[in-house]
What does this fold into?
Amino acid sequence: MDSIIVRGNGPLKGQIPIAGAKNACLTLMPATLLSEEPLTLTNAPRLSDIKTMSQLLGSLGAEVTSLQDGKVLAMSSHDINNHVADYDIVRKMRASNLVLGPMLARLGHAVVSLPGGCAIGARPMDLHIFGLEKLGAEIELKDGYLHAKAPNGLKGAVIELSFASVGATENILMAATLAKGTTVIKNAAREPEIVDLATCLRAMGAQIEGDGTSDITVQGVDRLHGATHPVVTDRIELGTFMLAPAFCGGEVELLGGRMDLVESFVAKLHEAGIDVEETDKGLKVARKNGRVKAVDVTTEPFPGFPTDLQAQFMAMMCTAEGTSVLEEKIFENRFMHAPELVRMGANIEVHGGTATVHGVETLKGAPVMATDLRASVSLILAGLAAEGETVVSRVYHLDRGYERVEEKLSNVGAHIERVSE
Ligand code: UD1
It folds into this structure.
């Protein structure tokens, strides 16, 4: 199993290219199941989660060809010959559940294992099921699998979600494109990945309005056709690497970065005393001198502060001047990085969904363990700002969501290397 060794660092300087969004790509790929014609994605990120989704689609009979070193995914779902998404693949990644809506809409039936993924809470699928049942599907849980069928096809409906779940909105949106009549998703998620999915589905011939707002309206069509679609920039990778110069000092330009993807996050960086400006090629982040200031953060659905940047921000608050309070409102068990940061000398108290971080002058390098995807990168960032050497083990979580992290960081001057044990 690989580990990453990080040594405390001086200021960083240079450019980091930001990849296409993992979370967008993982919902765009299952969209291929909606059409017999090819769907090609450009600007795809090169990550193990993408390989897992390719494997899952392949097991259903779709063809996924990786071109240009993985940056282009050419997919065809002409011959879907299996409607069972097996536990062995689904358990590796929660986003596997996104094949449910498209398979149901295209084939009229689907059997999908309940998912696994990061251990950051219960993460049920009740809202996905609620929405698809409103569209006329019959769904039952047997032996850990959801058995879904729509013998008479799906029918448009008004679906009001009790929480703006990203995955439920995506599954329902994909299914509704081929349902008869009009579907309205109320309290829909507004994440940029939803807008990206709707844009791709429109390119395939779907009729969708309102994506990016809380009310999405879909007029069902008889069939979708092929398309080529560029995956939107990864706002979480962008936010993560924006923090590197905030930890270490210096100035880094994030190529392809877009302010509209990270506005609430940038507002918190400004409060902490970090400069962010737009450039021709992306966003430039600089921290000149002195410690960052403590800032309070509450995670919320988009456009609020993203839960997927909470761990990284907490790592930065560990050496901030003052005390910051971080409230996690999306997942109930998402402070597993806190005890690891404490091992590096941080002063953090966790009570339920609230973490209070009392800033200390410096962190000290230590062996630490990554417990989920975003937690693992937060430990790398903390290691860059710590005295001495930090060894982050179990980095397979990291490879699920960050493309060539050690290469991107060492190119701007970070002391980071991967070792295989
Ligand atoms: C997606 C992202 C993940 C991000 C999260 C929130 C992907 C592949 N993953 O996950 O990185 O952290 O959005 O921005 O895009 N919930 C229910 N019932 C449901 C569905 C969800 O109660 O049927 C709850 C979950 O337990 C959680 C909250 O809603 O507490 C948010 O989940 P959701 O928005 O669905 O996140 P995911 O789509 O799983």
